[in-house]
Amino acid sequence: MDESSALTAFAALSQETRLRIVRTLVRAGPDGMPAGTLGAAIGGASSSRLSFHLAHLEQAGLVNSRRDGRFIIYAAVLPALSGLIAFLMRDCCQGHPDICAPAVAALACSCEPEKDAADA
Q: 71: Cβ–Cβ under 8 A, 6 or more apart, which residues?
């Protein structure tokens, strides 16, 4: 990812609703979710408000959409988000890997969904 793309992505993420949308879509995984379900998941956003924010995120390359019958399904573009993180971390340690260790550990994915208290 180059600096211009990173700035566009950060600008898109710098708004509360858009950040919530991306985090919700990351949790939804590569299958994504229908717009109506997404709106409800982020606190009942109206369709026009949701559409406005999704357009910004699509323009920044962080979200994509596809039609599935009468639904529009939105999903996070995980490679773009990974690229954004890589852009930030590219020169982090300058020969001292211990500096980056906490950030790398935070990015480690166990790929196990979090369990609710009711599931435990």
A: 34, 35, 36
Q: To the nearest 10°, report the CA torsion of 54, 56, 59, 63.
A: -40
Which residues lie across from 74 on neighbouring strands?
33, 65
The predicted-structure confidence for 11-52, as pLDDT tens digits, reads as follows 999 999 999 999 999 999 999 999 999 999 999 888 899 999
Q: Tokens 């949701």 map to which residue? A: 50
What is the C-alpha separation between 12 and 48, in angstroms, rounded?
Answer: 17
**Listing from the earlier edge strand, what are the strands of the sheet with 71-76?**
33-34, 71-76, 63-68
Tokens of 65: 């959409």
Assess contact for 34 and 89: CB atoms under 8 A.
Answer: no
Separation of alpha carbons 13 and 60, rounded Å: 9
Those residues with Cβ within 8 angstroms of residue 51's Cβ, 6 or more apart along the chain or in another chain: 35
Q: What percentage of the chain's residues is helix, strand, coil (to nearest 5)?
A: 55, 10, 30
